[in-house]
Design goal:
The chain is an alpha+beta fold and 172 residues long. It contains seven helices and four strands, in the order ααβααβαβαβα. Helices cover 37% and strands 14% of the residues. A four-stranded antiparallel β-sheet has the order 1-2-4-3, sandwiched between helices. The structure holds flavin mononucleotide.
Length: 172
């Protein structure tokens, strides 16, 4: 699968098989994050790999009770370790970096035949408590990963038109 195919076939998967993902696949997914760009190559990130059933159960409760968070065999929790750092633009560096790295993960997982779903609806403090994440850090997203119950065939993607999301030379 090439990058374009991964981009097209990635979609949010909210129903997973029980089967754990092979360690080799997990390694490739993490490696795709490790190779991601980061501002000044600071790599101010940490990825907590959660496979413990009790912890996943607690995470799902902290994530508005979204069931697929505990049903996925693995959940990667992306943590910005310097969330207060900002680029000259005023944009938070570490949070952007973690986001890019996690998007790499979604594409690599797709190539491996795995499904993922970004989870941004969660209680920041609860997730930090569950995983012992230090106060100075910020959880950016939860990423359940597993074999999709219904395969990864390409479905219709509801997206805005190119002309509605682009403009030329000036903003309009
Ligand atoms: C930052 C972010 C947070 C998201 N949070 C959730 C979430 O908490 N629960 C959920 O079911 N989907 C969540 N999604 C998935 C989006 O709903 C999904 O990406 C969008 O509807 C487009 O569908 P697709 O991923 O299948 O292309 C999130 C996506 C992003 C990028």
């Amino acid at each position: 699968m090439n990058v374009s195919e991964a981009i097209i076939s990635r979609r949010s998967v909210r129903s997973y098989k029980e089967k754990q993902i092979p360690e080799e696949c997990l390694h490739k997914v993490i490696e795709s994050a490790r190779m991601a760009p980061s501002a000044r190559n600071k790599q101010d990130w940490k990825f907590v790999i959660v496979q413990d059933e009790e912890k996943k159960d607690e995470l799902h409760e902290a994530a508005n009770g979204q069931k697929f968070v505990k049903e996925a065999p693995t959940v990667v929790v992306g943590v910005a370790t310097k969330p207060e750092d900002e680029m000259k633009s005023g944009i938070p560096t570490s949070i952007v970096d973690v986001t890019i790295a996690m998007d790499h993960m979604t594409l690599k997982a797709t190539e491996e035949g795995l499904g993922t779903c970004w989870v941004g609806a969660f209680d920041q403090e609860e997730v930090k408590n569950i995983l012992n994440i230090p106060d100075g850090c910020k959880v950016v997203a939860l990423l359940p990963i597993g074999y999709p119950e219904e395969g990864l065939e390409v479905l219709y993607k509801d997206r805005k038109n190119p002309e509605d999301i682009t403009c030329r030379d000036t903003y309009y």
